[in-house]
Design goal:
Helix content: 55-70%
CATH class of the largest domain: Mainly Alpha
Number of strands: 0
Largest sheet: none
Number of helices: 10
Distance between the termini: 59 Å
Number of domains: 2
Shape: globular
């Protein structure tokens, strides 16, 4: 490759920050107008006036771009992904441990509360957050179940029930701050929530 020729999708060194910011702003507008599911990397690239390959230079997935566009300091999809390597018969405990422990982090908790409040609201932003949570969290859990031989529709249902159970515990503990759950030690909450999640994962209820 000639020394003055850049690889496709790589910005000039002097313009990297500007290009990343332009992509993030275009993504925010695209997500707002089209929703998380319908927004595409190509549409965002057109709006930003850049090659689609440049987006992939900065962001490894649509979830990463969404996190940047709405200024999330943490990636909820990555938090859940860490739990999914656990054996299937311990997956409920792994999800409960990973998610509930993450919420004790002062960097995560305010963001999590904002996401949950948005998700249960009726605004356009709330719809966008719900799409993100279902697509990036629910689909990961459903995908793991499908890989274990669970039929796709059943896997989606079980994943939805896991999300519902987990969201309920987080809302009561951190958003509504309802006692006694709000003050129960973390280990005890995990010990109670984990088996309920496992029941949904196994298809036998909480």
């Amino acid at each position: 490759m000639p020394p003055n020729q850049r690889r496709r999708g790589r910005p000039p060194k002097s313009s990297g920050g500007d290009a990343r910011q332009a992509i993030a702003e275009a993504a925010a507008a695209e997500f707002s107008e089209r929703g998380y599911d319908a927004a595409s990397m190509r549409g965002i690239a057109r709006r930003a006036g850049v090659d689609p390959a440049l987006i992939h230079h900065y962001f490894d997935s649509k979830a990463a771009l969404f996190a940047e566009a709405v200024r999330l300091p943490v990636r909820p999809d990555r938090i859940v992904r860490r739990a999914l390597d656990a054996p299937l018969d311990r997956l409920g405990d792994a999800i409960a441990t990973t998610v509930l422990t993450a919420w004790e982090d002062p960097r995560v908790k305010p963001v999590g509360i904002t996401l949950l409040k948005s998700a249960i609201g009726g605004s356009a932003a709330g719809g966008l957050v719900r799409q993100f949570l279902v697509r990036e969290l629910g689909s990961q859990i459903a995908g793991r179940l499908a890989a274990e031989g669970v039929e796709a529709t059943e896997a989606d249902l079980r994943a939805s029930l896991v999300l519902a159970q987990m969201a309920g515990a987080l809302i009561v503990r951190h958003v509504v701050v309802l006692e006694p759950l709000a003050s129960v030690p973390l280990d005890e909450v995990i010990a109670r929530v984990g088996p309920a999640l496992q029941g949904h994962i196994d298809g036998r209820g909480g």
